[in-house]
Amino acid sequence: MIVSFSRRALAALTVITTVGCGGQTPSNTTADASGPSIGRVQTTRATAREVPDSRSFFATLVAEQQASVAPLVSGRVERRFVERGDRVRAGDPLFRLRDADYRDQSAQAAAQLGQARTRSVSDAPEVRSARATAEAAEEALRRLETLATQGSASAQELTRARAELTAARAQLSMAEQATRAARFATAQAQAQLSATQRAVGDAVVRAPFDGEVIERRAEVGDFAAAGVTIVTLQRRDSLRARFNAGQADSFVLHAGQRATVTIDGLDGLHMPAVLRYVSPASAELTRALTIDATIDQVDPRARPGQFATVRVELDARQRRVAVSRRALQSLAGVYRAFVLQGRRLDERVLFVPEEPDGDEALVARGLEGGEEVVLDPTDAMRDGQEVTR
After folding, report:
1. Which of 14, 174, 209, 226 is 20 to 30 Å apart from 160, CA to CA?
2. What average pLDDT score do residues 245-264 get?
3. Per-residue pLDDT tens for 50-86?
4. How far is residue 216's CA from residue 79's CA, in Å, rounded to a whole number?
5. Is residue 18 part of a domain?
6. Could you tell me if residue 146 is inside a domain?
7. CATH code: domain of residue 339
8. Rounded to 5 degrees, what angle do the CA atoms 193, 196, 199 make?
9. CA-to-CA distance for 274 and 296, rounded, in angstroms?
10. Within this chain, do residues 261 and 227 fall inside the same structural domain, yes or no?
11. Do 194 and 125 share a structural domain?
12. Integer Cα distance of 144 and 153 in angstroms
């Protein structure tokens, strides 16, 4: 009761004071609230259209091809041919290791191969002689066995002939084994020579493909162990944008969809891409799919490791309202525009799902097709403000 009475008394006092000061009340409270009217403004018509639905994802640029290059043999680095940032062609030397030991081993293997070949050649006549002796012993035994059936050969002669045949066959077997051993030694020496010659060639570490050196881990005088990376090489002319898509998005993404890749900090750079590699299964912890979009035309400013945004065009279409980018005001990531309703400004808060591209922005909510939108709005404009025609 007391509060109600006080408000009524205050209202009465206000009326009395107003009348006493002149007896007139403001005739246009709306104009007072929105400020003075403004002069003529330039406008444009918003246009409704159907555009492909799209989704945007944060991505990282990765090289299409990258290799951690390691020597195939161990040795001390004698010479370094490249530095970080150098471009190389496939087969270009990167490092050269000390190869004196491998050259000595190669010379020794060549000598052993020569000896093995000599033994192999010299063993051939021994096999032929042993085979001839064995054949003669067989013939002699057959002749004696025939004579024995006629009673013309004694048992002692047959025993001696059989012993001679056994000895001849043993001699032939030993000769053949020696020949096989000589051939094996020759093949082994040949393999050893090839290995040592290959080691001499492998002492020069070469680029496996055309690319750019992004890291080197060895200097002249360092010991480089076989299989341990000493230089990292990658290709920059072929890049992928790699991103993760959540479970909800995974149902609308598939290989072959067109996409656009933009790089943070490089306004106006848009590289066309195609979704090429989609993981067949989601990660167990994140339930996300890893997807690679291959970039068709790589801009020279694009580098592996940079942050990027991938906008994928989906198969479905959606309604958007196109308006000139000049009609938008942006403050703290919120887009606003002024629509001319008769002679007054109607301030709208817009939902623009994608960063405006070029001279046009696509509005999802807050604007209708055919509405008249003010171009180049100023900070002095207010909602409800009157416009002088």
Report:
1. 174
2. 89
3. 887 888 999 999 998 999 999 999 999 999 999 999 9
4. 13
5. no
6. yes
7. 2.40.420.20
8. 150
9. 8
10. no
11. yes
12. 6
In this prediction the pTM is 0.55
Say how far apart CA 84 and CA 258 lie, in whole Å: 35
Please tell me whether residues 130 and 76 are part of one structural domain: no
Question: What is the share, in percent, of the chain residues with pLDDT greater than 70?
Answer: 88
Q: How confident is the model at residue 35 (pLDDT cuts 50, 70, 90)?
A: low
Q: Over the range 194-211, which residues count as b (16 or more CB within 10 Å of their CB) and which as e? A: eebbebbebbbbbbeeeb
Query: In total, how many domains does the chain have?
Result: 4
Calculate the alpha carbon distances from 324 to 180, 327, 387 in Å. Answer: 89, 6, 20
Provide the pLDDT for residue 120. Answer: 62
Residues 346 and 221 in one domain: no
Tally the C-alpha atoms within 13 A of residue 76's C-alpha that lie toward its C-beta. Answer: 5
CA distance 350 to 330: 10
* Residue 285, domain extent: 57-63+237-317
Q: At what angle do helices 155-202 and 100-149 cross, to 10 degrees?
A: 160
Residues 210, 197 within the same domain: no
> Is residue 302 located within the same domain as residue 215?
no
Q: Taking the CB of residue 72, how many other CB atoms lie within 10 A of it?
A: 13
**Long-range contacts (CB closer than 8 Å, 24 or more residues apart) made by 162-169:** 164/137, 164/140, 165/134, 165/137, 165/138, 165/140, 165/141, 167/137, 168/130, 168/133, 168/134, 168/136, 168/137, 168/138, 169/134, 169/137
The verdict on residue 32 lying in a domain is: no
Q: Which of 148, 179, 202 is at the close of a domain?
A: 202
Domain boundary among 145, 178, 202: 202
| Domain assignment present for 116 | yes
Q: Cα–Cα distance between 282 and 87 in angstroms, integer? A: 37
Cα–Cα distance measured from residue 145 to residue 91, given in angstroms and rounded to the nearest whole number: 74
Nearest Cα neighbor of 301 from 258, 271, 275, 272 is: 271
Q: What is the mean pLDDT of residues 31-41?
A: 69
CA nearest to 337, candidates 306, 303, 317, 367: 367
Same domain, 131 and 248: no
Query: How far is C-alpha 46 from the chain's CA centre?
Result: 41
d(CA 55, CA 228): 42
Name the amino acid, one letter, at 386: E
